[in-house]
């Protein structure tokens, strides 16, 4: 029963954050609107949560909500989130061993860049085959992607320092 | 951090979910998510708009703000009227029908804005009416006073997606209300402003000229107000001139819109 409550709470929490993003955050002036709240939260959750299935549930809920409401190919957002997670996991296992800010920065950048590239590629391929409404050009993608990545990294770093100050939790994560 | 096995399993489940979606087996969870998200985000959107207006009213320039708002509203209405009157001179009968299309024929659907696609490179609004309410792809979306906001690009049962004019991918055929009835294409730029392109250098357009929708645009009736020419750019050795258009509305502050049905 407690487990079901936890899952329900997680789904409601994710959908509320998503509603906040599409109903308020995206209307803010730049550069604030460049911050992708769902990506930032997913990345933080990947590191903070010890429960793999709750992390997966968060990715699925955010992914499906974004896929239902986007004009791109259905599933592209969820697949990109998982693809980015796999790449981040591979980098963490093969290249990083310490717990410095630089490691966090590298992983955040790898996660965000790989997400953007996978999302772009899936939609390009799906757009060619399924004539999706998501008409994208490489220049348009570049024009916004770098701003979004920088803003997401800035907010992630800010949250990283905040969490490190207020909690000792992060200390065990990279070990 | 999830392990490799969990990630692999997650991929498998996601691929199954995508297949289920294309078979239509996810319609029930989609309805639940849609219901929750549209209610919550609509509430958040309305509250933030009210908060914006409230804060705006209580600044030091309270009275000035109020007056300015009223003037803007009046200018917008007058501009729409003026553009309609200019058209009336030439095509009286057609425009008479268009002027009253909302009141007489009622071939429109009122919709509330739920939010916007969570992608800063795209300017697409989400509204709470869809194919169940008679909304079609390519239909024109207007504000209460007849200003064109954009076109429907995707429709689902209870939701539709509106590509607003300022979106980078938006292109609408338009007519300038000058003596030559110049034709061009209104294109969104940087998700912020509008530009009139493909106007031959031989055409005479002026700052202040009004731009309305053209009859050749699929799904959009002729004569819907778009904006006013703010500046004109001409380049040497270029066969076309371009003009920056100031829209009549701030597309981020609209709560209710009307979607024109295809036969209106």
Give an overview in words.
By secondary structure, chain A is mainly α. Chain A has one domain (2-172). Chain A contains 6 helices and no strands. Among the domains of chain B are: 4-54, no CATH class; 171-247, Rod shape-determining protein MreC, domain 2 (Thrombin, subunit H, Beta Barrel), CATH 2.40.10.350. Chain B has 5 helices and 12 strands. A 6-stranded antiparallel β-barrel of chain B has the order 1-2-5-4-3-12. Chain B has a 6-stranded antiparallel barrel with strand order 6-7-8-11-10-9. In chain B, strand 4 (148-155) and strand 5 (160-164) form a beta hairpin. Chains A and B meet through helix 1, helix 2, helix 3, helix 4 and helix 6 of A and helix 1, helix 2 and strand 1 of B.
Number of helices of chain B: 5
* Low-pLDDT segments of chain B: 93-98
Tell me roughly what share of residues is in helical segments of chain B. Answer: 25-40%
Shape of chain A: globular
- Report, as a whole number of angstroms, the end-to-end distance of chain B: 56 Å
CATH fold-level assignment of the domain at 171-247 in chain B: Thrombin, subunit H
Quick one: how many beta strands of chain B? Answer: 12
Coarse shape of chain B? globular
User: Radius of gyration of chain A in whole Å, from Cα?
Assistant: 16 Å
Q: How far apart, in Å, are the first and last alpha carbons of chain A? A: 33 Å
| Largest sheet features of chain B | 6 strands, antiparallel, barrel
Strand order of the largest sheet of chain B: 1-2-5-4-3-12
Judging by the overall fold, what is the CATH architecture of the domain at 171-247 in chain B? Beta Barrel
What is the domain total for the residues of chain A? 1
Mean residue pLDDT of chain B: 81
Task: Please state the average pLDDT score of chain A.
Answer: 82
